[in-house]
């Protein structure tokens, strides 16, 4: 939940706001957390940090080490896991320390750097989820499966570059930053500067609102297509054959059975992406609203409960990074199947092969181990 925090400024001045380093007085009037809440938030955030770090490291290693896992969708998911892992390494520990001490102790320079890294990783995560959603839409609605592993890697490079463009101004002090006395991380604070407002609005649009609306549109289109196809199937007898299904446009005319299996797999994958989208919305919509209200509302930013509100929303944001790898394991069979040990694979390799069957050149045969006999020869 990083961003920037502008200093308190006089509301009647028309000049550009200038950041002010927090004084002992300002720190004293910035309420923190009571001891019970400190313990609670510290335990919760420590658990989230460990799960997010361990889970996403495992996902990245699975895709990196096994060529069979390097499909386009898995490469994108691995990149999403990498962004979550970086968030757990470069942001969560410092937020945890600040929650425990209720004071930012890492200095102004690292405040700017951590703000840039935070938005770099969260924008990247949203962009990858957007790409996956559009890919599912093209496959299920438009019947176009054009995303290859090479194209997925190219899109990953592009999204990292764009994420860096939008987040890098925070590291160089544009808008200008200060050490936050009122939140567990460098968060957007109140400002009367129109340029500051414009940057926050652009960042929120790029990070949340535009991806959310596009993903919502794609998911509505996919759900409508699935419902429409289900109705068309149910309107025919249960004994409908492949040729009838093909006439309904549900299967490919050239390879109906293969297409049926493939579309079923793609639809199941869509359900997984829908779950990821739901978690993204639940975890980040409150934070987005909080950032906008903080930027435009002097009264909200100076509420006595601001540090507590910031902490609640902070661990909710980080919760997404911990839930994602659990969803991969729960929903994606390939991630579950990796658990076979090397010894089990060796046992499979050392199993004796079954004798090869020699099929007679006739149309009506039956099996009698170890041979196949033709009815006309009996």
From TrEMBL:
The chain crosses the membrane at residues 39-64, 76-96, 116-134, 154-172, 198-223, 269-292, 312-330. The keyword Translocase does not apply. Coiled coil: none annotated. Its main location: membrane. Residues 55-328 form the G-protein coupled receptors family 1 profile domain. It is found in: Cell membrane. The keyword ATP-binding does not apply. One of its GO terms (molecular function) is G protein-coupled receptor activity. It is a multi-pass membrane protein. GO terms for cellular component: plasma membrane. It holds the Pfam family 7tm_1. Keywords: Cell membrane, G-protein coupled receptor, Glycoprotein, Membrane, Receptor, Transducer, Transmembrane, Transmembrane helix. PANTHER family: G-PROTEIN COUPLED RECEPTOR, G-PROTEIN COUPLED RECEPTOR 63-RELATED. This is G protein-coupled receptor 63. It comes from Xiphophorus couchianus. The gene is GPR63.
